[in-house]
Write a structure and sequence with these properties.
The structure holds two protein chains of two kinds. By secondary structure, chain A is an alpha/beta fold. Chain A is built from 22 helices and 27 strands. In chain A, the strands form seven sheets. In chain A, strands 4-3-5-6-7 form a five-stranded parallel β-sheet, with helices on both faces. In chain A, a hairpin with a 7-residue loop joins strand 8 (187-193) and strand 9 (201-206). Chain B has a six-stranded mixed β-sheet with strand order 6-7-8-3-9-10, with helices on both faces. The chains are: A alpha/beta, B alpha/beta.
Amino acid sequence: MPVQAGTLDTFPKLLLEHARVRGAKPAIREKDLGIWQTWTWSRLDGEVAALAAGLARAGLARGAHIAVIGANRPRLYATLIAAQVLGAIPVPFYEDAAAQEMVYVFRDAEIAYAVVEDQEQADKLLEIQPECPALRHVWYDDPRGLRNYHQPSLASYATLVDAGAAWLRDHPGFVEAEAAGSSGNDTAIMLYTSGTTGHPKGVVLTHESLIASSRAYAQLEALTDEEEVLAYLPMAWIGQNVFSYAQWMVVGFRINCVESSQTVLTDMREIGPTYYFAPPRVLEALLTEVTIRMEDAGWAKRRLFRHFMAFASRVGARLLDGKPVGALDRLHYALGNLLMYAPLRNTLGMSRIRVAYTAGEAIGPDLFVFYRSLGVNLKQLYGSTETSVMVCVQPDGAVKPDTVGPPMQGVEVRVLDSGEIVLRCPGLFREYYKNPQATAEAKDAQGWYHTGDAGYFDAAGQLKIIDRAKDVGKLSDGTLFAPKYLENKLKFFPYIKEAVAFGDARAHACAMINIDMPAVGDWAERRGIPYSGYTDLAAKPQVRDLIRDCVERVNADLARDPKLWGSQLRRFVILHKELDADDGELTRTRKVRRRFIAEKYAGIVEALYSGAAVCAVDAQVRFEDGRTGNVRAELAMHDAKAFAPESARAAA
Amino acid sequence: MATLAEDARPGLEEGHASASAARDIGGPILALEGISLAFGGVKALSDVSFDVREHEIRAIIGPNGAGKSSMLNVINGVYRPNAGSITFRGERRAHMEPRRAAERGIARTFQSLALFKGMSVLDNMLAGRNLMMKTNLLLQALRIGPALREEIAHRKRVEAIIDFLEIQHVRKTPVGRLPYGLQKRVDLGRALAAEPRVLLLDEPMAGMNVEEKQDMSRFVLDVNDEFGTTIVLIEHDMGVVMDLSDRVVVLDYGRKIADGTPDEVRASQAVIDAYLGVQH
């Protein structure tokens, strides 16, 4: 049963309520040493109290910022709440951010305190400390490897909690008093947007907006405190914050922290989440793995898989939507469920899922339909950091692969003449931190937030997002060109990991392609094609033919579209290296930074359009340890066949 | 209000306890005096003496065929030297026995891996603790009573090592399916599972790429640091050796030609000659 609104308008108050009402129930689990360790609500409450007292003793004051850096760990979640108890503002970081990328945020938010997971993160902070003089205290959770560090600013999390617990014995009621003093209007958290251009911006979110968004979801999906949720996405991401923190605090369900980023699949199978949130890339990776494993399976299993998946794509989604399905088809599906769908759901850890959401990027229709036809109630939603992910969500029974659903209750959405979507909602952010100009640009005087996304409402009143408003362009002949639309179509093929489409103000559209190393590698091994690494594999003529086939299938598909047929891909290139966030080519949430790539690879773009057969490249790459190196390669440009539009063929 | 500072963090308790003194290098734990070893007329080692102090990282280097692996085999009792003596933990003998070496706390990893390819990572590492299993085979097979309790205790230790080496994701994967770099890490884990006082590493970085080498170096340092394990290491990568080791002994044609800190060894004319191939 969700906690009711009223006086529970901040996360600290919600925590005290949970400790009171469901103290003995599990709140958060962490897989450690191969075993799920459980913290109950009262245990969490105790930890938060001691931690808050410790932080207060260390000088963390109301309104100050505190960095939280690391993977999903109960102690880091406790830090979020402990900071909020004191009225301080937690600022989570992406754990894989390089030290230099953190400097800007530390300086911008004048962060003096940080709680980090381990030596890796502590090292980064010690490295940037000279550039961030405000940073005075760093506490680490895992002491491994840190024994010989004697920096005065460094101390263990355990000492902080011990000091707080000792002080609390003489000052009972401290936390309750602090929590009571918090108000829904206070800033709850600050999340930095990865920023496709320029510096990241700190999005200031209040308790009120996060709680409003969470209550809306809880009501819509009738969430209970019996839900199991897997915590595996970066804490600095709004999706993780809303679904595994804000909703957790509002509803009082259980979150489960995975053992490591590489054990997600196993951990998910063990937990069997009932409520699940995954960006499309995670779902895509899962499907790729299933596909590869099916290719390895025996002949009979492969036949069975193909037959039942083809059948499910026709019937499964209709069943899930409660649409009429014939008795024979129902029987057929039941058989498939017994032999294929249920075992597959079990392997994926999706047996118990009641509601699953995907968001963050457009999802390939076939990918989306795959999960739904298996019987997983996967739905799309639309939102952003600025809106606490509270804009649109697909209701049960009206789920389509290419829309994001109607606006949620209390949300007003309009589409401007330019195609841009603007909205007002209770979950809206207060401001960009110390950036009134950007705030004014994003939020007008009437409180309308300009999303920067382009889209329109379909006949059923569901919102359809096509691209970023600023990215939608036109070919030189005036044909509509939506790069992301093309890229998504390409990326649906398991062999293509990333794609970047070009075409604005050009005669035709072209694409840069990253092959998917595991999928293409497996494909090559099956055919006995030897290769030494990514660059070598990408240059193989057989791989070129494989990718060309994918591109031409996209073109054939586009030819059927009355508006977009003109933007068929005439030429493409398979890049010599994988696009990487460390090289600035992707954002930390793995979105393509198209403009940056266009500049960085200007030579390749020119070669694509000049008709040249090859292009020499000399690219700088940044390794994970921060060093840089050069990759030299000669890249071949490839032509792809374009198809006459369906309308023209019909006329002929 | 209860806090969680103590529980839920069951690290390697014993390791942590001894670790506070970990990097205080102690007296010699292992001393080799006048070791000579010959196979027929081939002299593998002639009159080599050196010692290994407790908690230090000691490297043995030298050109190919210098006798490095032979030296490790003498230490863990696979080879019996023709002359000389070995003193380990105060006990002086003419030669070591393999089983005795293992029981007294010497473990090693192998240049060519010594793992059960068809068994999971977890089982391989549990196998590394077989000398410590006290209950009899029947009880173990039936998994009852004391055997069950014992297995739980062993599993706990092995899990701590799995966590330490960051191989949770392959816990249940058969070793044969893992990439080489990971297999090397599992081999290290198997050796660590025996909770050795002295760990012999035979070319732990052979055949690895730069990133894997960095990872492995990190683990070697961490093992030494966290558990206080004394490490004797053979390695070809000079950068690695000079970074990791406290002291280095240099062999050439079965003789010791230098012994000292990395800086001393680097400056030694004999070592430079041996590596640059000056005529003898």
